[in-house]
Amino acid sequence: MELRILKYFLMVAKEENITKAAKSLYITQPTLSRQLAQLEEELGVKLFTRSNHKILLTEDGKFLQRRAREILYLTEKTKKELSYDNEIVAGEISIGCGEFLGMNELSKLLSEFQEKYPNVKFDIYSGTAEDIIYRIEHGFLDMGLVFDYINKEKYKFIRLKNGDFWLEKTINWLQINLFIQKK
Hints:
The chain is an alpha/beta fold and 183 residues long. Helices cover 53% and strands 19% of the residues. Strands 4-3-5-7-6 form a five-stranded mixed beta sheet, with helices on both faces.
């Protein structure tokens, strides 16, 4: 399965029409149809239901759509992380945070950090503690601010004054430390 084919698949899912998707991708409609058929054959499932003028995702197609987005997101994130200059503190840190109180606390912390390291960008995700932990586990977030009990053996954490936890998956924290400690 190639990344290019996943991009084709996502465009067809978005457009719900092979001809429109092919035009958006600057390829021919027969080429796109053939690529989709090969993808279905490779996966052994039907990804689309077809009607006269519309193409819709099956349940397997919806599952692949979620996974394809995740795969492409992680691919781009990895490319960015590998391209950072070793002499400059730069990069992108993905942070998950609970809504309301967590966002206020996070904005204060990030403002201070941004002053010290202006080349570091933040990607902020808001969700429940369970969702944030899931996203850390699967590599979509580097760290999180949660208002819930965490498994202290599984993660590195810092207890803040008001009892909140910064939660990071260990391997991601090591990666982030490498970027932050450069001078």
